[in-house]
Fold:
Amino acid sequence: MSETAPAPAPLTEATTVSLPPVASLLDDHAPPDAVLGQGDAPELDPEQDGPEGGIADEGEPQWGQWRLPAVTIPDNLRLQTAVARLVVQKQRIDAIVREGQLDGLWPLSWLALDGRSIDLTAFVHSVLPFIPETGQGQSPTAAGWVNLKFTLGDDSRWGRQQVARPRALAARLGADERAQADKPDMAEVSLISPLGLCVPTQGKSRVGFLRQMGAASMAARVTALAYPSPSQLGLYAVAPGGQAQVWCVLGQRQLRRLEAHWLSVPLLNGYGVPEPKPWPENWPPVEAVAQALAECRGKGVPEVDLLGLSHRLTRQAQGMRWVSTNLLQMRNWLPRWRFFLSSFIGLPLLLLVVAMLALPRAIEAAAVAAI
Structure:
C-alpha cells in the first residue's frame, strides 16, 4: 500500500428539500402518485401511531388534498429498481420476524433491544456502509411527501389486521399535518439523497400500514443526508480463513465488512459502484485485516484504517529484524544499567566472596591431611 493514500473526497452534497409557502400552492394540486379520490381527511382526536386509533368504517381511505412538495429522487432507473428491491426484501424480513423465525437468520447487530425485532437504524448502517453521522453532510429539515416505494419501514410490529378502524387511522396518518412539528403523530424521515432511499426515524411502523391501505406516499419532515460518491467506494471479494466475505473500502483507506453483502452489493452496484474485485497484492494481507476487524468488535461499527495498519505491520517487521550497528552511532541508545551492574559487577563480586570463604577451609583441610 502506498505511503500516502489519497484523502477521501468530499461527500456527495445532500439534496436540499424546500417547502414553498402554502398560500402559493393551489388547493387542487396533487402529486402523480395520488390514489383513489380527493376528499378532506376526517377530523379526529389525537391518537397514537398504533392499533388503537381510527373510527369504525369500511373501504379504502379518501386521501386529502396534497399541499406539500414531493421529495426528489435520482433519475436513475437502475438505482430506483435496486432501492425498491431493498424495500421489498426488508418487508419479507419483517414477515419472517413476525413468524418468530428471527434467531440465527440475521446478523446480531440487527437485533433490537427486545431481541424479537430488527432495529431499522442498525439495518441501514449494516447494508449501507459509511453513512455520515448525525449532523455531517445533512441539509435543513423541511416538510414534504416521500414515496413509499423507496421508503424502508418496520412492518414487524403491527399492520392492518391489528387495527380495528384502519380507514380513519390511515387518513389521519396520511395527512399533511403529520409533517408539522407541532402536530401529534409527526413523522420524520432521513433521505439519503444520492440513492433516493428514505429511512424513517419517527413513524417507522406506519410505513407498512399505509402501504397496505393503498397509499403511495406519506407526509413527513425530511432531512437529506449526503453519501460518498461511487468513485470513492470499492468492493473486494476475500476469503479469510476460507470464509467468503465482501469488504467495502472508502477512499482506499477506511474498510468495513459488509455483513449482508447479498443486500449491499446489488444496491451499491445500482448506485454505480463496480462489482467486487480481488484484493490488491500491495495492500495489507487479508488475514492481517481480518484480525484487525476482529479486534474492533464491541467498539461500535468495526472499521480498519488500511494506511495505519500498513504502517503498524511495517514497524513490526522492522522490529523483528537483526541489524548490525555501532553503539556510537546510536544517538538515543540507553544502556540497561540494572542488567549491566548485575552482569559485570555483581556476578564477579559474588564469585570473589565465595572464593574467599572457601579458600581458608581448603587450606586447613590440606594441612590436616598432611599431618
Observations:
- Residues 195 and 206 are 22 Å apart (CA to CA).
